[in-house]
Amino acid sequence: MENRETLIKAFYKHIENEEYSELQKYCHEDFVFYPQMDTPFYGIEGLEKSEGKNFAPFPGFSMPVKEIILDDKDRAAVYLVFEGKHSGAPFNGIELTDKKVKFSLMMLLKFKDNKIIEKHSHVNIQDIINQLEN
Question: How many Cα atoms occupy the beta-carbon half-sphere of 54 within 13 Å?
Answer without folding.
Answer: 20
